[in-house]
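seq as requested:
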Amino acid sequence: AELGTLPRPGDFRNEAGLGATGTVDGRRVRAGRARLFTDLGIAVPPALDARRTAWERDGRSTVVVSVDDVVVGVLALADEVKPSARHAVAALHGLWLTTVLLTGDNAATAAAVAREIGVGSVVAEVLPADKAEQVRRLQAGGARVAVVGDGVNDAAALAVADLGM
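struct tokens:
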């Protein structure tokens, strides 16, 4: 491919909440969370896995990349927490409301974000299809549940919540 152009992937498949797979220039490329590779029996080299783990402890999400089932890299992504998030969570607590961070992110990243914004309860590594079940469990325990979601991965949980935003 020319510098500045990207080849079009073929045979693209989204693995909901885990990653994606496709063929690029005749080679099988995967990108996703470490669990995708573990489930497929594809080993992440120890040095890359150590880097991934360190980034996750620092509150970053990571994406593992493989070509033809050989891991070639790890990327780190970081969502910037809005300065008002801690204040908003504190205001909710002031109303005697319980806050829960329900996320598909890994446990270390979720815990770091929860500490930063003051959320005391975290349910991490939840696949999109399982988020609605988590909401139903809270409701079955007598809770009224409001869900704030930012994407397609939250659609089912938003739909079953008492209040979806």
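The radius of gyration is 18 Å.
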